[in-house]
Amino acid sequence: MVSMSLRDCKNCSSLPPLGLLRSLKKLFLEGINDVKRVGNEFYGQGCSKPFPVLEILIFENMPGWEDWYPYVGETEVRAFTCLIELSIKGCPKLLGALPNDLPCLRTLKIEKCPKLMLDVPNLVLTSITKISMEEVPCPSLPWLLETRNKLELSSLKSLDIRDVSIPDTLRDPSVADEVEFLPKWFSERLSGVESLKIKDCNELTTLWQNVVTLEHCFPVLRNLQILGCPQLVSLFEEEEEERQQQQQLEGPSFMMRLESLTLQLCGKLEKLPQRLHTLPFLVELNISSSPSLVSFPEKGLPSTLKKLEISACGALESLPEWMTHTNYNLEVLEVSDCPALKYIISPRGGLPPSLKKIKIFYCAMLESLVPEEGMEINCPSLESFEISSCKNLKFLPDALDNNLKNLRRFVIQKLDYLESIPEGWFSLPTNLREIRILFNEKLDVLPHILQNNNNFLSLEVLEVTPLRPSILKKISFDRFSSLTNLIIQDPIREEEDVEFSVFPIKGMSLPTSLIQLDLGGFPYLKTLCSMEFQKLTSLQELYISVCPRLASIPKEGLPPSLQRLTIDRCAAFTSIPEQGLPQSLLKLTIRYCPKFVSFPEQGLPQSLLELYVQECPILKRQCTKDKGKYWRLIRHIPVVEIDKRSIFDIGEEE
């Protein structure tokens, strides 16, 4: 046996002699509530070498476990000689010591063990590369790291600290009980750490004080994450101005290999280190939920930066100017929930030409991406542009001719004051595959080229909602020869809406390439044009919602390729005609149609695998198991749900 899991053995008071299993490599123990001690009965009485090949040992949620006794046997015999990973989680009463000689251990995880004290003088972990600790007592982490000559810190590559504090013996006794800064030994002895994560250290105000010599801190650190430290003001106390200038001239080595920096849920973070721009390998910066951050360093960030993500920084008014005219490697810019942000591009700059993705959400004060209307952007590498829920945005920048030929995705949503889209976003040649224009209240016109050109050969997804019927009629949908998904919802009501009693309206043709069609919010729609729908030979999914006058589907039937049909919140919908459903149909959903009363008398398609009916009270009574009028028509269908309950579990209505 190579792997074993024991779970939820509620009445088990001792563990079996699993150490006798000589081939066991992975052991998982969880929810064994009554076990209080782990000792020789676990290793196996008289066993010559317990767990000889075990590599992974995991204990989880053992609330009664109090002591772990080391193996007692012959002098030269050791247990767990091949153990690579040890994980102990959710053992609130565990007091005792870990096995004291684990020469192959690489990963040690201890979480939510508030009484566990790692103070064993003879702890030997010569191969350790990753330590993760959460909610462990004060002495545990520093005692572990201070185990001289036994714990090879030079081999440690990853350190994850959560809700851990430093004892009085390793810091100034005048400071608070919680850690306010990391002690000097912390950075000096962890020279091999590549990944450092610090989380939920509630009193941490800065990582290092000035007394720490920063030039040699974490020389190989690549990934630094600081999460949930609400008192953190800065990463480290800035040196005196003269010292800073001298260090800049000499070229500092502080975290010089850093590639990724994440600062999250640091409520008092006011600034970033002034010298961050000197980090030659930094490619990713993520700052979120830091409402006190007002600005970026004056000298900016490294020109090597490729990804910048900023969210929930309520005091931030602008992005740094360096981003626009000194950074030629930035590929991803994501900004969200920054209510004080007024513009993205400074008056003196432009967007980096290297940008591939722009995503901006929930910036209430943002009026424009550029400081002046009519400014053009130069982003030949841009592939995805998405901006949503910026209610004060009034205009988009235009683009240089033929400058956006790599643009694949264009999404604008809930821009209440946007009145038009510059033609440059859709200039030819275009490789756009997805266009979504959603809920922009004042948008009265689409770019002329989008309405009338037949060169959108790559466009696959088009969603427009809401638009005036007069605009919809001008769009030549059939010219989008590769279009597979079309979503049209909530056209703005006008007197001429009466023309939309039939869809498609006269003169409107849909592309035969359509696979999915979604229609919603047509208040005057009464019927679907059978002739036009029969042309949609590739259509697989049809979704119709909130069409209060639609009573049925065409009696001539829907396309023979259709696999999924949904009718949702259509108050007048009453029935499905005899030949209405194709024999290819796999899934049928009827929701919130209170007048829907009848299925075809000849039955539903034999191909049907799923039927869902919700809030259709008349039909529900006729589908009662064994008794309902339509029971014989639906009992062969593998999945039938009425009001979110399987029909096969519903008895006769009371």
TrEMBL record:
Gene3D superfamilies tied to this protein: Ribonuclease Inhibitor
InterPro entries with a match to the protein in the record: LRR_dom_sf
Lineage top rank: taxon: Eukaryota
Keywords of the record: Plant defense
A Gene Ontology biological process term: defense response
Disulfide bond found in the keyword field: no
Protein name per Swiss-Prot or TrEMBL: Disease resistance protein At3g14460
Species the sequence originates in: Actinidia rufa
